[in-house]
Amino acid sequence: MLRRLWLVSMILSVSSMLWSVPTLAQDGELCDVIMVEPEEPGGASTADTLVNTGLQMTVRNDFVTAITLFSQALDLNPELSDAYLYRGCAYANNNNPESAIADLQTYSTLINDPELASDIEAYVGGIMSGPRECVSGTYYADQTEARSVISGFIELGATADDYNLRGLAHVCIGNYDQAIRDYSQALDLDKKVSKFYVNRGDVYYYQGDNETAIIEYQRAIQLDSQDSVAYNNLGYSLMLLERYDEALEAYSEAIKVDPLYDIAFSNRADLYFDFERYEDAEADYTEAINIDPIAINYRKRGLFYSNIERYQDAENDYTEAINVEPTAENYNERGLFYFNINEYELARADFQMAAEIEPEAVYLYNTGYMHYLDYDYEQAIQYFNDSLAVDSDYTSARTYRGLAYYRSGEYALCIADYTVLLSVDSTDDTASNNRGLCHDSLGQYDLAIADFTRAIENRGVQTVELHNRGATLRRAGRYEDSLADLTEAIEMDELDAEGWNLRGITYDAMGDYENAVSDYSQAIELDPTFAIVYYNRGYSQYDLGNNLQAIEDFETYLELAPNGAYREDAESLLGELGASGS
Questions:
Q1: Does pLDDT of 15 surpass 50?
Q2: What pLDDT, on the 0 to 100 scale, is given for residue 529?
Q3: Which tens digits make up the pLDDT trace of 43-85?
Q4: Residue 578 burial (10 A CB sphere; 0-12, 13-18, 19+)
Q5: Long-range contacts for 471-477 (Cβ within 8 Å, ≥24 apart)?
Q6: Taking 50 as the threshold, does the pLDDT of residue 28 lie above it?
Q7: How far does Cα 199 stand from its chain's mean position?
Q8: d(CA 386, CA 360)
Q9: Between the CA atoms of 157, 161, 163 and 169, what dihedral angle is there, to the nearest 10 degrees?
């Protein structure tokens, strides 16, 4: 008799798709070692395996995952000197010089090489360079410029404007509390300047405190009723608090004060759209373009047209935005538009162009995701690697890279990605579920069951996790527990053909072929095109001696899946059954 084969749909629960500082590589002999992939992915011990997996990640410039793996190795074996070297180099490349120095000094101590200490400090000292973008605000070009303002500030004789400028510098680097103190100091020196209140209001807005921001903008307006920026920003905070009528009034006041204020027209158009006043919205978006035909104004009207399903007008506006400013952001936005109307080839081309113009994390991720949808997992992984090299905290890139590793059979790397995600958020049910699939694929059934259970505890009972845990319990030989999970899943959704198929597999594994046939038949009734279920039912019919029914099922499987994974087995079985004279 032929070997029994089952195909089980591995259901992957994933986050929704599409919606920095560069990691610096450092040349030099000391850390060249982490850029060489190990010859063997495994190791003599669990700790060695973790180290080698970590080195696979450093080669891909994924230093966050590598640090997690090296740390796990050191938890198992604190005397593993090379792990300190590798983790130290990973810290250095991830812009964490303090941890890098500590690890590299530990490494030099363990190998008894005190002369290495000076090389370590010289190595790490050169790795923190390059300007960083501002966290918030647009006044300064980058954080380097902002920090120079802060470091050069002289308290003695400082004016209100000086404190205001330092406040803007603190906004750039994200020091919001210090920025508020500086704006308050400016107001202590001159309470009649409305822009100081506006700037302080902006900081409260950045902190998510729109109630206080509104108070600040209102104070600015009391001082200067012609401050259009104060009216506009007031409208935006009111809108965020869902005080829409007041927000509309504020935007209208901004326009009344400054009839050429395109941003206020654009923001008011957003409100009109929410009110379903589409003609008013279109008029305001168009007026914003007439005032200032910049890319963002075309993009906003393009999004409006897309939302009301005027796709040709939307495409024209997104294209005009690119014509005006052929930036990565504008190509990415048109790519999102194409993606949302299922024009995937056009979307991929735009995402690719965005990534080539400016290799930021989101553009690289979007390009990688399109390769993932095309089953080109190797290219997808490369783009996700590049995305994470730019922003190691980009959750979507790590989530989908884990899936791509899973689809590629790189189960240890898949586990590494989801382990990192769970180290950040232990309640991430998606990461728990997907890591469970990777453990299952390695035959690590207890770990897989624990992950599925954690996902169920965090998200509540869902059919996805019950299917996956039930299938793993069956592979672990825990048939009654498997039946319990799959029966619960069926009770939750009796119309889910996959649940019936999975329980049928468990019954078959127990030798209960009649119940298996019954469950497979129910799955087929729910989804007559579910090819693999015919294959599974055919096997159970075969075991029951129902050869005619088995032949019919195998033939149906081949009709539905002529190039299916089990074509040869089905054809061999048909040949065997035909030879037996059935």
A1: no
A2: 96
A3: 678 888 888 888 888 887 788 888 888 998 898 888 888 898 8
A4: exposed
A5: 471/8, 471/440, 471/502, 471/505, 472/436, 472/440, 472/445, 472/448, 473/445, 473/449, 474/505, 474/506, 474/509, 475/440, 475/445, 476/445, 476/446, 476/449
A6: no
A7: 32
A8: 9
A9: -130
Helix (H) or strand (E) holding 425: none
Which pTM was predicted?
A: 0.74
Distance CA 317, CA 265 (A): 17
Residues, the chain, total? 582
Place of tokens 């999004």: 303
Q: Tokens representing 85?
A: 């070297």
pLDDT digits (tens, 9 = 90+) for 248-274: 999 999 999 999 999 999 999 999 999
b/e burial code for range 471-510 (CB count within 10 A of at least 16 → b): bbbbbbebbebbbebbeebbeeeeebbbbbbbbbbbbbbe
> Regarding the domain with residue range 32-125, which homologous superfamily does it belong to in the CATH classification?
Tetratricopeptide repeat domain (1.25.40.10)
Q: Which two tokens stand for residue 154?
A: 């002289």
Q: Where are the domains of the chain?
A: 32-125, 529-582
For the segment 116-145, the average pLDDT, to the nearest whole number, is 69
- Average pLDDT (380-402) is 93
Q: Residue 263 corresponds to which amino acid?
A: I
Helices (H), 114-227: 116-125, 143-151, 160-173, 176-189, 194-206, 210-223
Q: Tell me the per-residue pLDDT of 187-223, one tens digit each, with 9 for 90 and over.
A: 999 999 999 999 999 999 999 999 999 999 999 999 9
pLDDT at 41 (0 to 100): 66
